[in-house]
Design brief:
The complex is a heterodimer of chains A (272) and B (510).
Chain A: H1 2-5, H2 8-29, H3 62-98, H4 100-115, H5 118-129, H6 133-160, H7 163-170, H8 175-211, H9 223-230, H10 239-266
Chain B: H1 12-24, E1 41-46, H2 61-67, E2 76-78, E3 84-86, E4 89-94, E5 100-105, H3 119-130, E6 145-152, E7 155-160, H4 167-171, E8 197-203, E9 207-212, E10 227-232, H5 236-245, E11 250-251, E12 269-283, H6 294-302, H7 306-314, E13 319-320, H8 343-352, E14 359-366, H9 369-384, E15 387-394, H10 398-406, E16 412-413, E17 415-417, H11 438-449, H12 453-470, E18 473-486, E19 489-490, E20 507-508
Helix pairs in contact in B: 6-8, 7-9, 11-12
The chains are: A mainly alpha (272), B alpha+beta (510).
Amino acid sequence: MRQILRRPTLLAGLIITVILVAIAFLSLVWTPLSPTKMQIVHKLKPPMAQGLLGTDQFGRDLASMLMVGAWNSLSTSFLAVAIGATIGTLVGVTVAAIRGLTETVVMRACDIIFSIPPILSAMLFGAFIGAGRFTAIIAIAVFMVPVFARVTLSAARQIWTRDYVMAAISMGRNRAKITYVHVLPNISNQILVQVTIQLGLAILTEAGLSFLGLGMPPPTPTWGRMLSDSQTFMGQAPWLALLPGSAIALAVLGLNMLGDGLRDLLDPRDNV
Amino acid sequence: MPRLTLSTSTGFSRRTFVALSLAAGVALSALGSAQAAPKTSLSLGMSVEPSGLDPTAAAPVAIGQVTWQNIFEGLTTIDKDGKVQPQLADSWTISPDGLTYTFKLRSGVMFHNGEAFDSSVAKFSIDRARAADSVNPQKRYFASVDSVETPDAATLVVKLKSPTGNFLYWLGWPSSAMVAPKSAADNKTNPVGTGPFKFVNWAKGSQVELAKNPDYWNKAGTAKLEKVTFRFIADPQAQAAALKSGDLDAFPEFAAPELMASFDGDSKLTTVIGNTELKVVAGMNNAKKPFDDKRVRQALMLAVDRQALIDGAWSGFGTAIGSHYTPNDRGFVDLTKTYAYDPEKARKLLKDAGYGSGLTFTIKAPQMPYAQRSSQMLQAMFADVGVTLNIETTEFPAKWVADVFKGGNYDMTIVAHAEPMDIDIYARDPYYFNYKNPAFNEVLKKVDATADAAEQAKLYGEAQKILAEDVPALYLFVMPKLGVWNKNLKGLWENEPIPSNVLAQVEWAQ
């Protein structure tokens, strides 16, 4: 605990993330108003004039939309990263255990996936199965796989050179068992740090997809679409762009700070 | 938009910058340098670039908005009040049975390539439009033509199979333009007409340039400008920026009503709200359950608060309509009260029709802001009466035309119908509404059978009432023409009885 308090980056990141997650969960049971309720007579009211954060061009309550948007954005990103991290880690540790030609093939395949922008693949998915939460999750997860595969591979390769692993090999333990007992526990910190950082990117990508109309369809509020809808209202209602924009920036900032802080905290070299 | 990458190889702080720049969402469009407008040239903006420049070969209204009355002219024309006026035909007589039209053509009219206009050219143009392999977008308007004869160079006789009361009006449309036999095939990329402007150049994706035709046949109607540039800018923010910087002199159909207020107080620009023929209509597939039940369609109409929809979707600009007809069409009747907003009654009607426990269907909404926003408004209003509306975004025009317009594969859709006086679309078979009502078809047949304006107006009134009662589509509102142009610019049309930009009489005030 003292370790955390001594690190302002980590602390700030943690606070921001916890607040956002709390708001996201709160939106499941309570919002000030229904986020889809249109009240045309109250349209384009600035913050505090109507509701806490004002209303959009349809007179919907922005505070409620942002809250539900937080849930949609965070849940989509968490799921996508969870899927990507699981598959990517499995691929990484497996390849580290096998090495050889497999490593070359798998890593070049990762390079190929890296070369395709996620927005492009999301558009392809969208054309086949229609835009929506599922499309967004898959599109983001696909691009998380090579990230985690690379990180775990390089971390796991180091572990495989350690004396205790050598000892286990010489004792005749099979490679799957070594991976499970020795490798995974020793690289879990790196994976955790990577998950946190990738979450920030996933939120950004999800916002980008919604911005382009490839995210969840209306009336489900998402930060990205709120931003996209606000473009032409920028002059008369700047809060329409500033609020979801700040929400996205804050979420990404918080997760990145949390990730950076965790990396410092968990880096074994610092603890010597 | 900044490009998003998922690479881990760069520093983390850079991502924060990407996040912030996306979040701000500010597109800094490079503003062109403002230059003092020369008094004889005009730079005019349009949201949509035409697909070609031959109005007799394809339907998009943008084609006529560039070429009609500027490059191309017709036997008749339509003036700024929507009335038929003579043009290349000086005068005409109609036989008492309404079957024979004898046109007296103007002499001394030359096409831009030097070809002379005479009765043989007029016959060529009409025959080309009605030929079996014609791709004319309004080919049906020529369906009643039986034969075209040319007794002499200045006389054209058109014989019809059946009386067609609107024949002269249709001849004024962009799709009825007179084209020269030698150049007709190339009009799509190099249009040659008889109009006050000549085509100069088309930089695809950017602009079309026209220059004054010094040899125009009508000396009184000679263009007052030397040069006109049509520029195509899709993004409303960029449109506003180009106007404010002086890069554009005029935007006759500005795309974003919510940005109109940003021109208030501008020392150079004036805003002019006119009317158009753009009827925003949510068509239903009348052949498909549950829309084959009139009560369901009526209930959905009752669920719509038109004024709230106009306020929410189009910033309050627009006029509510109760049928497929606009206030500037002749014989207009206000029918917004036939099924005025009454959610209580809507719920009851739905219950009577057997949908008391709810109803779910999908609207295929094109990407245009008016369609997207209106769909969201409908979604909220329908929810109030227990109807769940799913919104599926579709691409307009290509995908929409294939899927909805031609394929008929939809529950509900929403588009603005641009053609004036197109109430007859409900009598067409097939047409995407799949609406079939013999009584309605009968009324429209009677319109054709008479040339008496008062009688026609009365019949159009009847037709409007049948649609308002039957609700084959939800009649929402007529879009306004949001004109923004330089205060010193005179002669642009305030209203739009037909999609157009008629520029011959446009000039700069001294």
